[in-house]
Structure formats: structure tokens, C-alpha cells
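Table S2 (text version). Query chain:
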Amino acid sequence: MASLITADQMTATTKRHFDLGKITEQVYDYNILWDRLKKGNQVIVKGGTKIQHPIRGLEQGDTAAIDPDSTRVTATYVTRTYLELDWKYIKNDIAMTLEERVQNQGEAVIVDLMADKYKEAMQDVSKFMSTQFYQADAARSANEMNGFYNMCAAAASAYAGIDQDDVTEWNAGLYDASTTTLALYGTGSLEAGMRSCTFREGPNLMVTTRALAGIYASKLQPGERRAPGEGSAGATDLYFQSVPIVADPQCNAGDWLFLSTNDLVMFVNPMGNFDVTPWEEDPDHYKFLRQLVMFIGNFAFLRRKTFGAYTVITS
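Corresponding C-alpha cell output:
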């Protein structure tokens, strides 16, 4: 009978069969948002004690028509500030019990089991991060990432250490908790939301629930459902003003979000870029092996004006 594979053998097998780069790719690809951030070079690996990014939130306001013979007066203006966010830490433990090791003796079998455990762990991390992105600001703990509603909700006017009272332009484009009917044009409509969230450029992605995506599709004529450049039609090919509409199962009921992925960055610390530790024995269990997956990072919204939300759409 084949002997139990050891922790060192599992580590060596892991290195042969699982490239760490592929693990990172799988995590970002599980969610449409990760995929867009990655493809748009919006996943940034950086160090430092905190996440910081410069913001110009005030106009200089010094340009004026003058009398050419008047005295020149030079004034100074503080137009720049910076957003500051803490690093957030996410972990996932991959475990191999004694029973699993006994039932999967032999390298080929244990490799299959490990592959499934990696997949399970990364799916769990992806869902956890997605949940943090969409969760209500009041539900966010101090250890969790700064998600969409921490940035967008009216109560979060001091997002990333910048208070809207000090920087009047530092606010989301739209936060509507009263509109219940999804309209294409007019007051409380998708077009109005797009206008509210446009500065230099507008949102390039809308995210909602599957139910609301279906309601949107029902308001269109069949020919209007067709994605630009695509030959197929239907609810899976939804666009509005050339902006794709994505149905995310993690999105909250009633939500219709406007996002500019150009102004959304995932900062990742090099010490926790989905790193995977070697397998080790757990001293508290019989022949129990464990491995740690670690992520250190945070979402950063670099221009709040280009984001917005309707939160109670029902029809």
C-alpha cells in the first residue's frame, strides 16, 4: 500500500503542478470586475505603510482679467490633497485532514484532491472580496475592505480621509435611495444617472442583479437588445448608450450601479499578492496538513464623481 504523501512532497508537487501566477489569474477571473480591472491594468502592486493617491479637488481660481499697469499680487492656493486607505488583510486556510490523506494515498490521487482544494479556496476568496465590494457601509467591519458603498453612500462623505466639507468636489455622482421604477430617460432614469456620473468621462460599466437586468430587457424592443458588433440578441447582450450592463449574483437586490473602471483600482501589497505558503503540519490535529493563502490590498476609488447608484429599483 502506498504511504501517506508528506508535507514536503505536497509542497514539491504543488510547485510542479500549480504555478503561483495561475492562482492569481484564477482569482481575478472569477469575477467580471476582477477581469476588467486586470485587463485595464488597474491591479497595481505597491508597497508602503498605507495606500495613498494624489487628488486635485479644488480649482486654483487665480486667472483674471487685469489692468496691465496694476500691481502684481501673487497668492497661494492649496488645490491638492490625497486619499489614504489602510491595507486590508484576507486569508484562507487550505487543509488536508488525516482521513483525506488516507483515502487519497498515492501522488496522482492527492494531486487531484489538491487541485480541487485550490479551486475551492480561490472561489471562496473571490466571493468574499465580491461581498465586501457590494456590502452596505454600515455592515463593514474595521478589518474589511473599503467597498462601493463606503465610497458612494451619502454618509461616507469622508471617504479615504477626505471630507466633502473640505473638498466640495469630493463626492459620488449619484446616490438615489428613493427611485423605484427603472426608466430609460427622464427623471430618475438610466440616462439621468449617466449624466450625474459623467466628469471628463462617464461610467463604462453598469452592474445590477439578474432580475433587474431582465426588467431592463423587457423594456426594450428585440432589436435594441443587441450588443454593438454582435449578431445575437437577448438579455445577455445588454447595453445602454454603448455601456455594457452586467448581472452579478453578488449585487444587492434593488441595486443599479454606475462604475468607471478607469477610476477604480485594486491596490495589492507585494507581501500578500495571493501568496501561498508551503504545506506544514498542524500541531493541534493528528497528521493534519495546512497551507495559507494571503491577500493584502484594498479597493481605491480615485474619482468619486464617476460612480453612482440607484438602490431600491423594483420594477
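Notes on Table S2: The chain has one domain: 7-56+83-310. Residues 107-134 form the longest helix (28 residues).
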